[in-house]
Each structure stands twice: as structure tokens, then as C-alpha cells.
Amino acid sequence: MLKRPVYIYTELSPNPNSMKFVLNFMLAPDGLSFDYPNLEAALEEGKASPLAGDLFQFPYVQRVFIASNFITITKDEETLWEEVLKDTKQFLKIYFEENQPVFEQRTIDKNTIIVDANDSETVQKIKTVLDQYVRPAVESDGGAISFHSFDEESGAVKVLLQGSCSGCPSSTLTLKAGIENLLTRMVPNVKEVVAEGV
Fold first, then answer.
1. What distance in Å separates the CA atoms of residue 93 and residue 119, rounded to the nearest whole number?
2. How far apart are CA 76 and CA 79, in angstroms?
3. Distance between CA 198 and CA 194 in Å, rounded?
4. CATH topology of domain 8-97
């Protein structure tokens, strides 16, 4: 059996405990992302990932995030990347050379920013700005952002930050200085942006 060529390079993320492992092929459909905060989530019916499940066998792995052509792994505080990076990269290389599955066949995620016909005009604008301007920047740091909700009265947009953005010390700054500035400028009804579950 021919092994497929697998090239992996790593990128630091703004979260010092997260490392982005970038591959030379797609892992998830564009715009979809899969966040596994623990082993139970990786085994959950309907969103299971054998890859994430196997990664949680490493004692230092705290979270696994998969999107487009990268995996962001968040480690515990005690472990240094210098100690585990080579082994983690080697594991991923062998896993993909053997054509092991990333997801179970039925795994489908709703974690994409899709404009719905039932959305108000303001919500449609918010989703468009998030998708065109924010999502690519957040993905380049090994994370993802999804629209959660918009409160018409207060003007508050709730977003869900995942991957390296989850628990990242600089995610609050990114949220307020970057995303909130952009949305309040481009969508006048937006007054603030808050992160759900960070």
C-alpha cells in the first residue's frame, strides 16, 4: 500500500499552550471547524473524531481543534512544547500516512457562519463581516470564531471562540480591540462584542 506524502509544519499561536500543526491537505470542509475540549467530546455520537480521540491519549493534551488544513493542540501548563513537539508531529505524520480517519463518517458540524434567510438585516451584516474579515485572521492563529447571538436592544453580539483562542490570554484583547472595533464600525447597530464560553 502506498503511503501518501504528509508534510506538517508547526506555527506558534498567540496562546503559548497551543500549537498549530498545518498539513499539506484539507482535513475539514472549508468554513467548518470541530472543537474537542476533552476525550468525551471526541467520542460523542454525531461529532466523533478518531484523530482527536487518539491525541487525547497523550497525557499533556488538553484540547484538540480541527479546521480546514490544520490541527491546533492545546497542552497543559506543566509540559513544555520542546519536550513533546517532535513526538506529537511524528504521531500525526504516521497517522496520516496510514490514511487513518479524521472524523467518523457521520460527523457533521453546524459550526460555520452561514447567513440564514430568517436572520434580521443586522444579523446578516454581522455574519458577513465575521466570515469575510474576522474568520480568516482567527484561523491563521489556529482558532475559529462562530456567531452565537445578537441582542437588538443592547446591541451586544455574542461569539464563540474556539481552538487556540479558547482560554488564550490575548483573546480578550483580540475580541475588544479587533473584532469589536471592526463590527461597531461596519455595523452601526452593534455596541459591543462578548465571547461565549471563554
1. 42
2. 6
3. 9
4. Ribosomal Protein S8; Chain: A, domain 1 (3.30.1370)
The answer as to CATH 3.50.50.60 being correct for domain 121-196 is no
Edge-first strand listing for the sheet containing 143-151: 143-151, 156-163, 192-196
Q: If you compute the radius of gyration of the chain from its CA atoms, what whole number of angstroms results?
A: 17
Q: What angle do CA 127, 24, 9 make, to 5 degrees?
A: 95
Instruction: Give the separation between CA 139 and CA 155, rounded to whole angstroms.
Output: 26
What is the DSSP track for 91-147? HHHHHHHTT--SS-TT-----S----TTS-HHHHHHHHHIIIIIHHHHHHTTEEEEE
Question: Three cell numbers at 24?
Answer: 499539506
Per-residue pLDDT tens over the stretch 151-173? 989 989 888 877 666 666 566 66
The full set of domain ranges for the chain reads: 8-97, 121-196
Please list the residues that pair with 143 across neighbouring strands: 163
Q: Taking the model in full, what pTM does it have?
A: 0.62
Query: Could you give the 3-state DSSP secondary structure of residue 194?
Result: strand
Collapsed DSSP state (helix, strand, coil) of residue 189: coil
